[in-house]
């Protein structure tokens, strides 16, 4: 085993825990109030989310791109953050109707603060969805051309995850009352409709050309250890029951 300076990194975790514990004794909830516990909990989950995103980014940078026919599945990464944006922004906009008047002292003020925090947090998530969109788009640059991509059901990822991006774009535009963003959202609808028509046409074409929905074609291949159950022909000694 070759020694490396990275071998001491696990010990730094304990040093951080000791530092946190010692400061908590001085500046803990007894001195600052219960808000510190909530803040630490929120920061923990933010740190955990960033760690997962960072690990996923490193994995994508080190691994090769998927096969051409299933590469459209990369657009699935656009959906989670985009749907989160549209959902959170919409709920934050209606928080004032849901919060009691005495919620956290002043329900209306708490709803306004929540809306501001959620809008700016979702602005970052919206940018993350756009980032994944461009990564998935440029990954298809080498597949442009006739005969380079056979149709697969993953092609519908060209459409449905990007509907979430358009929905998130409208949500951000309404949250910040930004007319240019709303115009961009409207402009994104027409290419999406054309893409849906194109994918549907390619699906019909693939069925006619027997690229999908035929034995040993497309998703009907016996891959990954799965075998297709075939009807065995009857032996001469066997008789078909009446």
TrEMBL record:
Fetch the InterPro entries from UniProt. Answer: Mae1, SLAC1/Mae1/Ssu1/TehA, Voltage-dep_anion_channel_sf
Fetch the PANTHER family from UniProt.
MALIC ACID TRANSPORT PROTEIN-RELATED, TRANSPORTER_MALIC ACID TRANSPORT PROTEIN, PUTATIVE-RELATED
User: So which domain of life are we looking at?
Assistant: Eukaryota
Q: Name one GO cellular component term.
A: membrane
Segment forming the signal sequence: none
Entry keyword set: Membrane, Transmembrane, Transmembrane helix
Subcellular location per UniProt equals: Membrane
What's the protein here called?
Answer: Malic acid transport protein
């Amino acid at each position: 085993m070759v020694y490396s300076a990275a071998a001491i990194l696990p010990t730094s975790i304990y040093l951080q825990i000791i530092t946190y514990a010692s400061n908590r004794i001085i500046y803990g909830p007894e001195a600052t109030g219960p808000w510190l516990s909530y803040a630490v909990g929120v920061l923990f989950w933010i740190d955990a989310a960033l760690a997962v995103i960072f690990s996923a980014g490193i994995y994508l940078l080190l691994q090769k791109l998927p096969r051409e026919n299933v590469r459209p599945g990369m657009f699935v990464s656009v959906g989670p953050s985009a749907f989160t944006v549209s959902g959170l922004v919409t709920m934050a906009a209606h928080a004032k109707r849901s919060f009691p008047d005495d919620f956290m002292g002043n329900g209306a003020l708490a709803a306004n603060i929540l809306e501001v925090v959620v809008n700016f947090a979702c602005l970052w998530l919206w940018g993350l969805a756009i980032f994944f969109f461009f990564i998935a788009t440029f990954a298809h640059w080498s597949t442009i051309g006739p005969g380079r991509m056979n149709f697969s059901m993953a092609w519908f990822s060209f459409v449905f995850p990007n509907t979430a991006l358009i929905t998130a774009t409208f949500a951000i535009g309404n949250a910040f009352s930004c007319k240019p963003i709303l115009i961009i959202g409207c402009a994104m609808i027409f290419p999406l409709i054309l893409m849906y028509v194109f994918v549907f046409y390619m699906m019909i074409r693939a069925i006619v050309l027997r690229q999908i929905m035929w034995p040993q074609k497309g998703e009907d291949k016996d891959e990954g250890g799965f075998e297709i159950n075939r009807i065995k022909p009857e032996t001469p000694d066997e008789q078909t029951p009446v």
